[in-house]
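ugh ok fine here u go
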Amino acid sequence: MRYLICQFQSKVKVSLWVICLFVTGCGDGNVKPEQDMAKINYHATLGSQSNPVRVYMPFGERQYFSKLLCANGKSPHWYRQGETSSKGPHGNKLSIYQVECFVDDGKKKKHTLYFDMYHSQYKENLAPLGFKLKK
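structure:
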C-alpha cells in the first residue's frame, strides 16, 4: 500500500490537504478498508487538538522536535506557547507549540502543534502533515 499526499493551493491561498490512497495488491483479501482509513485519518490529524503528538515529559517533546523536519528538509523553529485549559482526548492537558518553517521564498509558514506528554510507553513514528521525521 502506498500513500500519496498531495497539497493543493486554492485561489484564496488556503492550503488544503488531500490524501490519496493507492492500494496495490490486496492479495488474500485481508486488507480492511476501515483500518486503512483509520491510519490515514490518524496521520492527517496528527498534532491537532483532537489527535496530539504523544510523548513522555518535556524531554520527549524536545526529542520529537529534534527529529522533526519541515517539508523542505530544514529544521523548524518552535516555541512552547502554553497549555490548553481543557483536557485532550487522553484525559490530559495538552502542550501548545508554535512551529515555523521557512519556505524557499523566505516566507514563514506557521503551524500550531499539540502534544500530550504523559505517554511513557508510546513512541510516535509519524510526522504531522507538512512535516517529515529524520530517519
